[in-house]
Amino acid sequence: MQIEILSNANSVIQQDNYLLIQTAEAEARVWVYSPTIIRVCISKTFAQSDESFAVIEKPLDNFTWQHLADIVEVTTSAVKLVINLKPLRFEFFTADGQPLSGDDTRFGTNWQAERVMNYRKLYPDEKFIGLGEKAGDLNRRGQNYVNWNTDAALHTITTDPLYKTFPFYIGLHSGLTYAVFFDNTHKSYFDFGATTDEQMMWFGADGGDMDYYFFGAQGIRNILEDYTWLTGRMEMPPLWSLGYQQCRWSYMSANEVLDVARKFREKQIPADVMYCDIDYMDGYKIFTWNKETFPDPKGMVDELKSMGFQLVTIVDPGIKIDENYPEYKEGVEKGYFATYPNGELFTGSVWPGRCHFPDFLNAEVREWWGVSFKALADPGVEGFWNDMNEPAAWGQNMPWMVKFGDKFMPEIRNVYGMQMSRATYNGTKRILNGKRPFILTRAAYAGTQRYSAVWTGDNAASDEHLLFGQRLVNSLGLVGMSMIGVDIGGFMGNPTAELMVRWNSLGPYTPMFRNHAALGMTMREPWQWGDDYEQIIKKDIEQRYKLLPYIYSGFYQSTKTGLPLSRTLAIDYTQDENIYDTKYQNQFLFGDALLVAPVISTVDHVDVYLPAGDWYRLNTDERFTGNQMVNVSCPLTDLPVFIKAGGIIPMQNIIQSTNEQGDGVLQIHIWNGDDTNTFVYYEDDGATYSYQSGSYHKRTITFDPQKREIVFNPVEGEYQSKYHKLELVGHGLDGVQLNRQIDNTNEVFAISY
Ligand code: GLC
């Protein structure tokens, strides 16, 4: 096999809105998307259509560049791209000339047959974060990874690849930040200086183009904002999906589902969601119900709804080969399934046995798939769980000659799950007539945040998985995802009661709070662990419900800025070396004000690193000085959760489900601090899209501890808050009484204390 390394440019011109550079091997094109986003695409065979599954924005019409001897410079207000023409290499700088990242001058972009790679300079102090759902440490320096969506059943905390592909990383060196999104759906590779004697980092793919977007914004928040501008942001999730979710593979009958739901209400343990895993179906045929065990789906869902529960049902892509199954027959007739190159239908085996696989790359198939959800939506289901969409089949790797339209498996695999969730989202959104569907997917590609929540797949009931799961959630937050869950309790294996309790205590601070377990594992509901532990779990779930106004406002932030709800400390404390320490790397901010330190179940004291600033322990209001490690107690009743001094947290009194109106009191908790702080409170009907046309309630709350004043700015939007009273609750105010209740009017007002 030959290696072809990009050689000298032999022409440079601007064509339309891009720069076109030719070498003997390939053609490079450069577009400017914004002052901080530049795209470089190097290709041997520029495809006629320039399509991306991830990117939803268009480049600027024009940009500034100049040709100086053997160099071309593309400049924006924020970034300078220096293109060396002999040989063709690309290097990015800040506008004032500090190097951010560039090609290794020797090897740059090159090909070995179809495989395209980019070798880049590596700075001695360079750290890397990102790639989403990947094993290993927060700082990915010294690690290498493969993106190849995989049904990673029985995965360990070092397994790679897992289920999802997010070819986006952030580089940190010399006090600077930058990021690269490699928009290529083929099997891809990232090496963060693991194998090159500290000389280079490299990434590339088995096929396709060297097509990447360079982000030059300074500060990780700005990079995330740019990345989610380019690839889209989530929409507001239905409020019910933020309540407690009880899942299991499987509740085997409607009666069992209803019994579990009733028990939550009897025991006054708040909950919003019940799940039906694969056993609700007739022979695992998608869009069917088992007539014996689920004889009256509508009756079941109605009863669940009367108790304030929503139901989520699972769907897998595999359509069972069965002559009496309409989806099978229609799919075959219309040519909706993946084929072999000779046109024969591809068959693989999954839960239903022998199956065909819809070609979700085809818009007509997505449409058909979307409409089929009527079988679930008509009886009242509003949540749709997309599983096994790597795509999974027994034996794992489907043949590479399997065809989807005119494309083959190697190019499709990493986007298949995303296209399935796209079809599910668009279809169910239409069917639900204005209500927000809740979509959950296991496989994903960059941009999936536009359609679906994700969870981290089949984890295990162990302490190390508890910590690992948090690391995955935090890392998924760096690639545009915000609505993320892990199987609390661990999917495989049986947790000890202590682990179950501890994991549930992390639940309130997990964007999607869902318990789930595999077939054959012990039952996991909160009452399965003895009275004392049940009470602790109940309190944790109640904590989730108290925090919902804060959490909902946090998701609003995600929809506007791409900032995730669960934030690795690297986002706000990028330059603090301690936060990358493997001892502290799982810690995260949950929203603007809370810092959470996940802890295993077998210790009652733990070292926590508190970054700069002052912090209060949530349960005691004890004040700590930051920039140091503190050893704190962590009994099973008290996960170490801290509030940033000056923190503002809206909370509500306990309700049993988000369906409940509640007492109409919104508590505004404030923790004393030194500096002025603000919080953007957001509310809407929690159920429809009317917020997109002005029906929301949004106001900025400012807390000025020096002036001893809290200002409620005028309300924006037309939605009337469901809270008619505001209750102010002060913490750390040295005995000063803030606590009082006032009317929640829409105009500006200030409270002094
Ligand atoms: C897969 C899913 C798991 C589900 C099971 C049965 O293993 O990851 O969550 O319970 O399939 O549908």
Automatic annotation (TrEMBL):
Listed Gene3D superfamilies: Glycosidases, glycosyl hydrolase (family 31), Golgi alpha-mannosidase II
Pfam families: DUF5110, Gal_mutarotas_2, Glyco_hydro_31_2nd, Glyco_hydro_31_3rd
Positions of the Glycoside hydrolase family 31 N-terminal domain: 29-191
Domain Glycosyl hydrolase family 31 C-terminal: 562-649
Domain Glycoside hydrolase family 31 TIM barrel: 235-553
Enzyme class: hydrolase
Domain spans labelled DUF5110: 666-732
Gene Ontology molecular-function annotations: hydrolase activity, acting on glycosyl bonds
Keywords, in A-Z order: Glycosidase, Hydrolase
Keyword Cell wall biogenesis/degradation among record annotations: no
Family per record: Belongs to the glycosyl hydrolase 31 family.
Protein name: Glycoside hydrolase family 31 protein
Organism: Mucilaginibacter antarcticus
Species lineage: Bacteria, Pseudomonadati, Bacteroidota, Sphingobacteriia, Sphingobacteriales
